[in-house]
């Protein structure tokens, strides 16, 4: 009777206790002392907090607090008998769920490739002599998606590309950026799906590297402390909704190997808008 199972999902908390703890029936147990919403399920009594941000701000007495960098949600299942005498030992099953607020989201962005062609006609104004006369075409090419982060919300976060500044259509990966398109706009964003409405996505820092290592010495900062690092970068939304979006110009790193990738990295904060002013 002293066992409690707690499942902490990104938006929902499910708690299960063995049936008939100390003789109590499910209709005598209350979530937060106020909600008699338990159900009998396969030898357990199950109680559900369906949304961490209900309209009345607290579902059945659920309390929350933020101890940087972790969110804590608390509640309990207690016995409540309105009869004159109590024949069973009172019970109080307290439980909590913790959620990390900060994540590092990584994405492999561009393949950088040099493609050589035999020159029957000029393809650039200059030519390169190797064993035979050749000219080269540079492509900033295929975009691959690889999301990564840490903590309880990690499966809900993704870094996506979009077709335009409306951010209404996700651009399928991979896609190719031709040489003539260097300097054109690339639209990107970090989105959290399936979280409670109270949580907003904030981009603290975003940068690009020619390596999957986020701390690689060669890097180009895009967003620093929530702000664009230069006039070629535009932050559209940050901390207002479950998605933060920005755009930057297509580029390439100089003096790279014949084939390499450019990686994007974003330090992302999931902000509780019920407790903090989230927009940066």
TrEMBL record:
Protein species of origin: Piaya cayana (Common squirrel cuckoo)
Annotated PANTHER family: BETA-TECTORIN, ENDOGLIN/TGF-BETA RECEPTOR TYPE III
GO cellular-component term (any): extracellular region
Localization per record: Secreted
InterPro entries: ZP-C (IPR055355), ZP-C_dom (IPR042235), ZP_dom (IPR001507), ZP_dom_CS (IPR017977)
Coarse class of the protein's main subcellular location: secreted
Any matching Pfam family: Zona_pellucida
Molecular function as annotated in GO: extracellular matrix structural constituent
Spans traversing the lipid bilayer: none
Residue ranges constituting the ZP domain according to the UniProt record: 7-280
Superkingdom assignment: Eukaryota
Record keywords: Disulfide bond, Glycoprotein, Secreted, Signal
Name of the featured protein: TECTB protein
């Amino acid at each position: 009777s002293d066992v409690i199972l707690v499942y902490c999902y990104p938006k929902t908390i499910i708690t299960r206790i063995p049936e008939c703890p100390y003789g109590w029936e499910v209709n005598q147990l209350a979530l937060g002392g106020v909600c008699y919403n338990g159900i009998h399920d396969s030898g357990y009594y199950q109680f559900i907090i369906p949304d961490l941000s209900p309209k009345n701000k607290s579902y059945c007495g659920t309390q929350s607090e933020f101890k940087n960098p972790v969110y804590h949600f608390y509640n309990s299942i207690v016995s409540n008998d309105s009869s004159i005498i109590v024949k069973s030992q009172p019970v109080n099953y307290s439980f909590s769920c913790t959620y990390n607020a900060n994540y590092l989201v990584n994405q492999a962005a561009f393949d950088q490739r040099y493609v050589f062609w035999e020159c029957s006609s000029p393809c650039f104004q200059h030519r390169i002599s190797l064993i035979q006369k050749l000219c080269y075409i540079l492509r900033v090419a295929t975009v691959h998606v690889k999301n990564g982060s840490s903590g309880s919300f990690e499966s809900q976060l993704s870094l996506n590309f979009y077709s335009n500044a409306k951010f209404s259509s996700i651009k399928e990966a991979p896609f190719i950026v031709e040489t003539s398109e260097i300097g054109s706009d690339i639209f990107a964003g970090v989105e959290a799906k399936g979280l409670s409405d109270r949580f907003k996505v904030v981009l603290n820092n975003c940068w690009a590297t020619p390596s999957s290592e986020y701390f690689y010495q060669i890097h180009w900062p895009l967003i620093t402390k929530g702000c664009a690092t230069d006039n070629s970068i535009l932050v559209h939304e940050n901390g207002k909704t479950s998605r933060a979006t920005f755009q930057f110009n297509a580029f390439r790193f100089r003096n790279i190997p014949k084939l390499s990738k450019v990686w994007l990295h974003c330090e992302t904060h999931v902000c509780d808008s019920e407790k903090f002013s989230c927009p940066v």
